[in-house]
Structure formats: structure tokens, C-alpha cells
Design goal:
The chain has about 270 residues and is an alpha/beta fold. Helix content is about 50%, strand content about 15%. Helix 1 crosses helix 5 and helix 2 crosses helix 12.
Length: about 270
């Protein structure tokens, strides 16, 4: 399942006066940090290097996530209280264009995490995987070991933390491992809620909610062909692979998202 496209291997350059300032935009009440992929990696590495054991949270929002936030005020507030929210997918790009903004990059965890690990390989950084079922997380961990030898994998744990004891045990594993980056894949809003609930006790510099990344690494599902991803229509591939649990999200959710964005835009103009 390796996707070793040279375009994913970034060289981080020192800041210069020509690099645009970080920009933020609001979509359905959620503030998104609009930066390039290289700048996003720089922000993550800055958080790792800060030496702070107080977790900085990095979340990703697409049309589905923003629909959830629009319908749930507490989830919308949770996203607003995070350190960084990156925009993922065609829906975010369309919504930004209605505001006259061309987003700098499509930032999704599936692509950004491998780019981060390749761009910063060999710097002594450590990571921990938390999420999915026991079999999936084990296969995802094996994949990551093969693909990202420049980082140290210090542990993994399944994400079925339905009772207090299981939750406490998972947090204990993370504490013992002392990773620089904790990757949490439980689906949203569960993963973001978990990070927010335990942020003060995780003792990890960076915590990232990465959605279905572990399913890709474990080869439960495959990525869409690159040409389809470049067109911004990977969601079609996901419906084909998992019609039972994806058709509602995309075939009903996407029109609902566009309706909400258009209504928001009309309100702003009146």
C-alpha cells in the first residue's frame, strides 16, 4: 500500500520574508488555519521541539466534520478551542472560494502524516498509534515501521476505550512510551472529544486526530488513484469501497454542507 510519491517528500526550508503569513478563515463557525503543507509540517515540528509536555492539538475538518460541527454546538466549540484545525477536501475548497479565498493546500491526515515523517526523518522523534481495533492497529504499526524508519515507534494501542479501566490503561501506555507525537484514529467526533478530554494528562507535545489513516496503513481500504485525488473526488472511491457506511455521508452530507455554506454566505451579505 506504500505510496512513495516524490511529491510527498518535502524539504523544509528556513522561513523567509517571501513566505506568506499564516491565514485563518471561518467556515460554518469553525476557524481553519490555511497554510501550505510545508508550513503545516513546520508548525507541527515547532510544537515537538518546544519541549512542552502540554499537548498541542492538530485536527482536520472536511465537509462531514463541518456538518457535525454545524449541528453540534459543543463539538464546534471544541474545534474552536484546539490549537490548529486544517482544511481537508473539496468541500472546504469550495466554501473558501465563496469567500474569495483560494486555499493554499489540501491538508488531510492521510497525506500529511507520511509527509511529516519523511521530511523530518532522522531527528530522533517518537510516535505512538492509538485507535482502530486490535488487528488493524497491529497491521498499521507494522506498516509504519517499514515505511518510516527515520522515526521511532514507541507503542500502539487499540481505540476501543469504552470503559474507564480501558481508557486509563491506554493513557498509562502513552505515558510510559513518552512519544513526541500521538496519532489518534477513532473517527470524528470521538477522536477529537477524546483528545480534548485527556489533553491535560497526556504529557505529549503533539496530538493529532487522523481519522481513517490506520485503515489505509492496515490495507483495510485503498487510496483512490492519484488522478482522482487530484480532481478532489476521492469520496467517490470511498463510496465504491464501502457503500454501506459511506453513501449517506457523501450523497446526503455533501449537498447539506453546500446548502449550509450558501446560507451562511447569504447571511453574511445581508
Amino acid at each position: 500500500m506504500a505510496d512513495n510519491d516524490p511529491a510527498d517528500i518535502l524539504t523544509l526550508e528556513p522561513p523567509s520574508a517571501t513566505i506568506p503569513c499564516d491565514r485563518r478563515l471561518s467556515i460554518l463557525g469553525v476557524e481553519i488555519t490555511d497554510v501550505s503543507k510545508s508550513r503545516a509540517i513546520e508548525l507541527i515540528e515547532q510544537a515537538i521541539r518546544s519541549g512542552e509536555r502540554c499537548t498541542q492539538s492538530f485536527f482536520f475538518v472536511n465537509a462531514h466534520t463541518l456538518n457535525l460541527a454545524a449541528a453540534d454546538r459543543s463539538f464546534r466549540r471544541l474545534l474552536g478551542e484546539s490549537d490548529y484545525v486544517f482544511g481537508d477536501g473539496t468541500g472546504v475548497r469550495w466554501a473558501a472560494r465563496l469567500q474569495g479565498i483560494c486555499v493554499r493546500d489540501n491538508l488531510n491526515g492521510t497525506d500529511l502524516i507520511p509527509s511529516l515523517m519523511r521530511a523530518t526523518a532522522g531527528r530522533g522523534y517518537r510516535y505512538f498509534l492509538l485507535g482502530a481495533d486490535q488487528d488493524t492497529i497491529g497491521r498499521a504499526a507494522d506498516y509504519a515501521l517499514r515505511q518510516f524508519p527515520g522515526w521511532e515507534q514507541v507503542g500502539c494501542h487499540h481505540g476501543y476505550l469504552h470503559d474507564r479501566n480501558a481508557n486509563a490503561e491506554a493513557i498509562k501506555h502513552v505515558h510510559r512510551a513518552r512519544p513526541d507525537v500521538l496519532l489518534v484514529g477513532m473517527g470524528n467526533p470521538i477522536q477529537e472529544q477524546w483528545v480534548r478530554r485527556h489533553q491535560s494528562e497526556l504529557n505529549v507535545p503533539v496530538c493529532m486526530a487522523i481519522g481513517g489513516l490506520f485503515d489505509f496503513w492496515a490495507e483495510n481500504v485503498s487510496r483512490a488513484p492519484r488522478w482522482l485525488r487530484k480532481l478532489g473526488h476521492e469520496w467517490i472511491w470511498r463510496i465504491v469501497q464501502r457503500p454501506g457506511d459511506k453513501w449517506r455521508r457523501y450523497l446526503l452530507g455533501n449537498p447539506l454542507f453546500l446548502a449550509r455554506v450558501l446560507r451562511e454566505r447569504l447571511r453574511q451579505r445581508t
